[in-house]
Specification:
The complex is a heterodimer of chains A (399) and B (304). By secondary structure, chain A is of the alpha/beta class. Chain A has helices at 2-27, 48-64, 85-97, 110-122, 135-138, 153-166, 180-192, 211-220, 231-243, 261-267, 287-300, 306-324, 332-340; strands at residues 35-41, 68-69, 72-80, 103-105, 126-129, 146-148, 171-177, 196-203, 224-227, 252-255, 275-278, 344-346, 349-351, 361-370, 376-388. Helix content of chain B is 76%, strand content 3%. Chain B starts with a helix and ends in a 9-residue tail after the last helix. Chain B has a two-stranded antiparallel ribbon with strand order 1-2. Classes of the chains: A alpha/beta (399), B mainly alpha (304). Chain B: Belongs to the binding-protein-dependent transport system permease family. LivHM subfamily.
Chain lengths: 399, 304
Amino acid sequence: MTRLAMIRLPMTRSLLAATSAFALLAAAPVLADPLKVGMITTLSGPGAGLGIDIRDGFALATEHLGGKLGGQDTQIIEADDQQKPDVAVGLANRMVERDRVTVVTGIVWSNLALAMMPTLAAGQTLFVSPNAGPSQLAGAQCNPYFFNVAYQNDTIHEAMGKHVQDAGFKKVYLLAPNYPAGKDSLAGFKRYYKGAVAGEVYTQVGQLDYAAELAQVKAAAPDAVFAFYPGGMGINFIKQYEQAGLKAAAPLFGPGFSFDQDILAAVGDAALGAKNSAQWSPDLATPANAKFVTDFKAKFNRLPSMYAAQGYDAALLIDAAVKGVNGDLKDKDKLRAAMKAAKFDGLRGAFRLNSNQFPIQNIYLREVVKGADGAVTNKLAGTVFTDHADAYAKDCAMK
Amino acid sequence: MDVLLLAEQGLNGLQLGVMLFLMAAGLTLVFGIMDLINLAHGSFYMVGAYLTAALVPVLGGFLPALVVAVLLTALLGLVVEAVALRTLYRRDHLDQVLATFGLILFFNELIRILFGPVPIFLNPPAALAGTVNLWGLTYPAFRLAILGTGLAVAVGLWLLIARTRVGMLIRAGATNREMVMALGVDVRLLFGLVFALGCGLAGLAGAMAGPVLAVQVGMGEQILILTFVVIVIGGIGSIRGAFAGALLVGVVDTLGRALLPASFRLVMDAASANAAGAAAASMAIYILMALVLAVRPKGLFPVG
């Protein structure tokens, strides 16, 4: 037994050595500085629609750029955060330690982004958010490794507050889910709306039935209603709002999240005529946008949402940054500087970042209409803010 | 708060309760008679909603789509029972939980592959899309339809269980399964039928909920938790308990959401009252469950 083992051992060793040598040879050409992007997003559970749209928008941009971001061979490593902060932090760790990615993107939810930030900053990994834009990361806790390519949360709700104020409504009823983004939403709305508040209601996150709240809205007889309900909550609320006969009594307003493509496909005519605010619209007239909408529809057989557009722009921002350093991914300070200074024409036109690395951009008013092909979608109905910066940039130490 | 609003909130509570009963009846039936914990009950609810949504354009109307969807969901239940669950009856509950949780993942992924990740469209039929006037109270017509359907199912189940031979076997099976087997009843057939009936009821709940709620992957799990609360309060295995529990949960949840924030505003400032009231309202049904279990550990209508 021992003799056998003694003979075997050297043989095994040399075999191992030979195998590793081959493996090294085979791997060598691939290792020549490919750009690795970690796509940590929500791919399962009720929030999966948003994550899938971001991933698909990002994939379309990469395809438009010939599979190479910034002219580099690009490898996208996908992972599902299940909308859970602990899972997201674990994945961030894996991306930094094992996969050694240069950039992490894909994140949908603000609470997950906040949880991942320390890990990614410590690992000198750039964090490009295609959606989450919490006030903390825009203000006092701003981070040189965090870039937001979409919006700061409050700004979308601020725009709706301004529109409702300018349109002359005097008594508005406010509803949002009972979680930090819901409270930021109503705070943002009230920053610009100065009229009377007929009622302010926070509902359970993921609530299904809104009959009790709608009965109270009806009793309060407001002249308008503002509701922030993203995803499935928005579908429940809009259907029930119309069925309760409230649409004729008080017009419904909301941020783009309450009336985006993922919701419109499911509620149909019930949302027609609703005004909402967003930094992007499918009919925004930029050269890149028309191509994006057409190609997205052709490739994925559905209309793109704002989340898909944000995923697309995230790829363009990374592309511009890598071009800015001529593909040299080693020097992280240079790469960050290049990303901060990145100038490119995105789906929203010329793109630029503020000192806190959040966009300075227009916020538009959109109206839900029936398109020529019968599909319910959003149409631009005006510009609420031009070159709008968020209210938190002044608290950020970065210049 | 005036009387009319209070009456409307009461009606809302009953309506939510009846919708929960449609779900709970099937779940409690399966557990009471087959001693099977079926976590995938919510998946049949989802399948019912998706099939209805898919069949409305094909069959040209809500009612035919609903009928076909419910029958197909029951049929699917028969198949799943024969293929996946039959071997689990003699295993312990933890194995059943694990296996039926696997079924949840399977059905969620299957629906995602077939219908895509985005929630799909389903509206009430045109005749029930508006509101009706009940003695000065404008109420959504479709919610009244849900209320009517639920009550009809409750009566139908009572007739089936109290007045028919199959019902007698079901009652006997729930009380003493071994004795029923010993008397030569084809338990395999009985179990298949009961499971299919439970799935059909879940499918009906999905079809009736679809026009009011989002038809999306994962919709079954959201309502399943409430359903478990209902059958635990009612007494696991009891249809009567499921009915009482469902109405209780529906009314407590609705009135909690309607009244708690307002009553908190009487004792604290508006901002904290809004947040605290919302939080308390979301806890109300769990507090109710704890209270019921403290007084009656086996639920309101214990079986066996």
